[in-house]
Structures are given as structure tokens and as C-alpha cells.
Design brief:
Oligomer: single chain
Largest sheet: 4 strands, antiparallel
Number of helices: 6
Radius of gyration: 20 Å
Number of domains: 2
Strand order of the largest sheet: 3-4-6-5
Strand content: 15-25%
Structural class: alpha+beta
Distance between the termini: 50 Å
CATH class of the largest domain: Alpha Beta
Length: 149
């Protein structure tokens, strides 16, 4: 019963914005699943659901991957607005940013999970990306330049 209930919870939060545990419990009851608020609370913890901000300014439950996608979108906007230039040298890519924004921009790049990027280091206005292979560096530079547009 627990697994059926948890699958139903994931389906509900995927299809509608659920702001409270009570709303979630009501949605489960509407599907014929008997629950208490305590049960819903435990399921939320076990499923590791997060409350994320919606574009309308309200909060809703979401899975971690959905929350990360939302963060990625915001990070990409910050990245695009803060990057000034990008250059390559061998398997290293250097990204220049506005003063004080390199850490956030590096986090944005990290959140993209590009397999070519082994890691990043950020200073105040400079990011150093270590690329897996020198042959992949120009492609990474091109993708970054597309984000800058």
C-alpha cells in the first residue's frame, strides 16, 4: 500500500501544484487512498520532496530533479547575464564574468552536468574549467558562447 501511495503522490505533484500536506492528503483521498497528515508527512520525507518556488511566487512540492531543473534555469539566466568572455587554451577554458559573479556562474555551469567538464574553479571574476580532452574544449567554448547570447 505504501508504494502505491507514494507512486500516487509523485503522479499528483507532477500533474498539479500542491502547496500543503493537507492539499496532498485531499488529492490522495480523491483517488480513494486513505491517509493521515502524519502518513503524508512521512511519505514526503521518504520521497525527499522539496518545496520549490513557482513562477507565480507560490511554493509547491517537487522531486529533487524537478527542483534542480528550476535552479538550472535560474542559474542559466544568471550565467548569461554575468559572462563577459570565454577563451580556450588546450584542455582549459577560462570564462571571465562580472566582478563578484564567478562563483554563481561556475555553479550554473556545474549544474549543467556536461560530461566534458571535469571540474571548475572560481575566483571573483574568473572561472577555470578543466575539460576532459583538449579536442572537446572548442565544443565547450561554443556551447558557453551560445548560453551568452
Amino acid at each position: 500500500m505504501k508504494s502505491v501511495r507514494q507512486v500516487a503522490i509523485l503522479d499528483i505533484i507532477d500533474k498539479q501544484d500542491v502547496e500543503t500536506q493537507e492539499e496532498l492528503a485531499d488529492a490522495l483521498r480523491a483517488q480513494g487512498i486513505k491517509v493521515t497528515q502524519a502518513t503524508v508527512s512521512r511519505d514526503i520525507k521518504e520521497l525527499r520532496l522539496l518545496k520549490v518556488l513557482t513562477p507565480s511566487g507560490a511554493y509547491k512540492y517537487a522531486t529533487a530533479d524537478k527542483a534542480e531543473n528550476g535552479l538550472s534555469d535560474r542559474f542559466i539566466r544568471v550565467l548569461a547575464e554575468s559572462m563577459l568572455s570565454v577563451a580556450v587554451s588546450g584542455n582549459l577554458v577560462v570564462v571571465k564574468t562580472l566582478s563578484g559573479s564567478a562563483n554563481v556562474a561556475a555553479e550554473a555551469l556545474d549544474s549543467l552536468h556536461w560530461p566534458e567538464i571535469l571540474g571548475s574553479l572560481a575566483g571573483d571574476n574568473t572561472i577555470l574549467l578543466v575539460i576532459r580532452a583538449e579536442s572537446e574544449a572548442p565544443q565547450v567554448v561554443q556551447r558557453i558562447q551560445e548560453l551568452m547570447k
